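Slack export, channel: ligand-projects

TW: morning all. Re-posting the request from yesterday since it got buried. We need the structure predicted with the small molecule present, not the apo form. The ligand is S-adenosylmethionine; the SMILES is in the block with the sequence. No rush, but it would help planning for next week.
GE: picking it up
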Amino acid sequence: MSRANLNKEPHEVAAMFDDVAEKYDLTNDILSLGQTRLWRRAVVNAIKPQPGEKILDLAAGTGTSTQPFYLAGADPVACDFSAGMIEVGKRKFPHLTFVQGDALNLPFEDNTFDAVTISFGLRNVQNTTKALTEMKRVTKPGGRLVICEFSHPTWKPFRTTYLEYLMKALPAIARKVSSNPDAYVYLAESIRDWPNQELLAAMIKDCGWQNVEWLNLTGGIVALHRATK
Ligand SMILES: C[S@@+](CC[C@H](N)C(=O)[O-])C[C@H]1O[C@@H](n2cnc3c(N)ncnc32)[C@H](O)[C@@H]1O
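GE: finished. pasting the full token output, ligand included:
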């Protein structure tokens, strides 16, 4: 599936993340009301990193999603196409390996990684199926995939309240705490327009991944999709 990605070109997406890089992690914590820490723990539990395993954290941003794999003794690579995010990441986590690269054309050999993961990044990539196919290419046979992404709350009354927060409160708070509030309008719209749990699972399966399943977090605000190659 190719997404219009709300009319943003890849270089515009990269520039947008370059702009918010400095305050990215702080803004996330505020806007998610502290939930990001919980979601990140769930990703690590799903990947179950083993010492020495090669793990690709794609769209890694500043490396905050990569650090737990390092702490678990694995050998993670943080890959992102925004030079600004990588620059902040290198300062914050100088021990991590950062590689600048595009999810649609990964700079890695076939069958390189024991596990590939992407947190809050797949939604930003222009062509979801191409990214899923690239992730499969660089994963070893039998290797794991874990996708952590905003999704759709499963309880209807909550879904309505959440959409109100997303479309109105979130951009308003972002105007106060972020250097680029427009990025958060884009964030809200891209979450609203993203496929639900079932549709994303079908897309992952269509790209040749096996044993596709998902777990809802915080009532489905976020979903973790898991699969194996
Ligand atoms: C919301 S941030 C997530 C960062 C990190 N994974 C986290 O959980 O904090 C999304 C990241 O996706 C990156 N990104 C978007 N499109 C990309 C692409 N085609 N290839 C590589 N990175 C991409 C952006 O530069 C940005 O750093």
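GE: first-pass observations. DSSP finds nine helices and seven strands in the chain. The pocket of S-adenosylmethionine is lined by residues 10, 13-14, 17, 59-61, 64-65, 80-82, 85, 102-104, 119-121, 124-125 (CB under 6 Å).
TW: perfect, thank you
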